[in-house]
Amino acid sequence: MKEHIQALLEQTLSILKQQGKLPAELAPRIQVDRTKDKAHGDLATNLALLLAKPAGQNPRALAQLLVDNLPESELVAKTELAGPGFINFFLDSNWLGSQIDAMVADDRANVPVAEHPQTIVVDYSAPNVAKEMHVGHLRSSVIGDAVVRALEFQGHNVIRANHIGDWGTQFGMLIAHLEELEKENPDVADSGLSDLEQFYRESKQKYDADPVFAERARNYVVKLQGGDTYCLTMWQKLVNITLQHNQAVYDRLNVSLTPKHVMGESMYNPMLAGIVEDLQQQGLAVEDEGAIVVYLDEYKNKDGNPMGVIIRKKDGGYLYTTTDIACAKYRYEQLKADRVLYFIDSRQHQHLMQAWSIVHKAGYVPESVSLEHHAFGMMLGKDGRPFKTRTGGTVRLVDLLDEAQERASALLAKRDTDLSDAEKAEIACRVAMGAVKYADLSKSRTTDYIFDWDNMLSFEGNTAPYLQYAYTRIQSIFRKSDIVSDANLQGKVIINAPAEEVLANKLVQFNDAIKSVADKGLPHLMCLYLYELSGAFMSFYEACPINKEGVSIEERSSRLRLCAATAKVLKQGLSLLGIDTMERM
Ligand code: ARG
C-alpha cells in the first residue's frame, strides 16, 4: 500500500513538472507512513512540507495542488489536508475487503514472489565439534532459521551454511582420548558418547596432566593436518557423533538444518595456503617475526599504529580469520552468492569486519555483494548475568528443551479440556518448543535478553502460547460454524464496523512483516506483527458476533472470511518462524 501511494505521488509530481507547476529538477525521497490515529486516515505523507522550500511555495497550497492532481486509485477512498501541509489518505474499504478475499483464496495469503530471486547464503547455528550445543547456539539457530524461511518463501535461492567448528589443534587431544576409550570398548563411537562436554573435559584433563598423552596429542595434530588416514578417520567419527547430537536438537526445535548443510571450517583448510600466498603477492600481507600479518589502517592499536591481523602463525598454523577470508571468497566465487548473511553473536563483530576488510582489499568479493553480520546479544538469566546452570556451568540446549517440555506439560495438565493424554503430550511439545523459540525470536536481537520461564509459557502477552491459542480459537469458531475448509466460506468481505477495518488493515500488512525478516533479518518484527494481529482479532471477535441472532447472512459470511484470513496469516506467519500451530489446545 505504501508503495502504491508512493507511486501515485510520483506520478503526480511528473504531471506537475510537465505542466511547469513544479521545477523539473525536484527529486524528493517520497515518504509514506502509517498513521497512529485513524482520525488522520490510514497513511500520510509530508511530501508538501518537504518540497515547499525548494519549490518556493506555501506548503499547504502545495499539498492542495498535489491532491488536486492525484490520479484516481481504487485504493484511496479520500484524502485530507492536515496540519501545516500533511496529506492523509483514507483507504477504500471495498478495496480492503477485496484484498482480504484475495488472501483467503490464495495459498500464499497473497504474498508476492520476489521479482528478482537472489542467491543468498545464510550462515547460522555453527556449533563446535565435540562440544554440546549451548544456549548461545539457540539464538543463532532459531533466528537464522526464521530468516531462511522468510527468504525461501519469497522465492530466493537460499543456501544454508552450518559453519561448524570442526578444525583446530584441539583435535589432537580428542583423537588421543577417543583412541584410549576405544581400547576399552571398540563400539564407544557408535554408541554416540552420551555426554560430549564430559568427553571434551576428560580429554583436556589428560592433556594437562599427562605429558605422554600430550605428546601423542600434539603428534596427532601434525598428522591430521598432513592428511594421515588414521587421524582423519578418528576425526570423522568425532564430527559424525557431534552431528548426530546436533541433529536431535534441530529436529526437536524444528530448525530446518540437516547434515547436508554442513560447510565447516575444515572445508576451507585446503584453500588457506593459497590465500596467504596470494595476499603476500598482492603486498597486503607481510612477514613479521615469522608470522604472516595484514596491517589494517582502519583499525588502530593502542599506540595509534595500524592493527596487525595474523593470518598465519609462526608455527605455520592458520587462524579463524584466515578461514573466514577463504569462506567469504568461496561463497561468492563458488556459490555465486548475491548476499551472505552471518548470524553470529556480537562479540565476533570485529573479527568479521577485519576478515571482510581483507576480502575487499584483495578483491575476493566485490562491494556489490552484500556481506552482512546480523549480530545478536547474549541470553541472560533472571539475575541479569549470563545464563548458567545452578553450579555455574553452561546450559546444555537439550536440558533446556527437556525442562521446557516438562513445564508445558504441567501447565496443560491444569487446563480443563476433553483432550486425551496422547493429544496433550503432543500439544505440550508444540507449546514448549514454540515458547522457547518465540521467547528468543520476539526480542530485538541486537540486545541481550533475559530468559524467563514464566513469561515465555504464559498464555497472555507477546508469547507463542498466546498466538497458538488465538489460532485454535478461530478453529473452534469454525467448528461451531460448520466450516470444515475454506471452500465452505460463502459471500465476500464487507467492512462496516471499525474493529473489522482495524483487523483488515493489519491483515494486509503481512507482506511488510515478511520483508522485515527477509531484508533486515529482524524476526521480532514478525512476532510483533502477529501479536498485534491477534490483538486486533480478539477485539474484532468481541465487537462483531458471528453466530448470534440478528447477524445477517452477509455479515456472518464476511466475518467468517475475516476469521479465515486471520487463521491463514497466523499459521503461515508462525510457520515462517518455525513454530507449529494446532487445531485444539
Ligand atoms: N563456530 C563459531 C562459534 O561457535 C561460529 C561460526 C560462525 N560462522 C563463521 N563464518 N565464522 O562461535
UniProtKB/TrEMBL annotation:
Gene Ontology MF, one: arginine-tRNA ligase activity
Coiled coil segments of this chain: none
InterPro entries: aa-tRNA-synth_I_CS, Arg-tRNA-ligase, Arg-tRNA-synth_N, Arg-tRNA-synth_N_sf, ArgRS_core, DALR_anticod-bd, Rossmann-like_a/b/a_fold, tRNAsynth_Ia_anticodon-bd
Catalytic activity: tRNA(Arg) + L-arginine + ATP = L-arginyl-tRNA(Arg) + AMP + diphosphate
Keyword field contains Endoplasmic reticulum: no
Stretches assigned to the Arginyl tRNA synthetase N-terminal domain: 3-91
Spans traversing the lipid bilayer: none
EC identifiers of the protein: 6.1.1.19
Ranges where the DALR anticodon binding domain occurs: 467-585
Motif ('HIGH' region): 127-137
Cell compartment(s), UniProt: Cytoplasm
Keywords: Aminoacyl-tRNA synthetase, ATP-binding, Cytoplasm, Ligase, Nucleotide-binding, Protein biosynthesis
Gene3D superfamilies xrefs: Arginyl tRNA synthetase N-terminal domain, HUPs, Isoleucyl-tRNA Synthetase, Domain 1
Keyword Glycosyltransferase: no
Family assignment from sequence similarity: Belongs to the class-I aminoacyl-tRNA synthetase family.
UniProt-listed NCBIfam families: argS
HAMAP family listed in its UniProt record: Arg_tRNA_synth
Quaternary assembly: Monomer.
Name of the molecule in the record: Arginine--tRNA ligase
Gene source species: Oceanisphaera ostreae
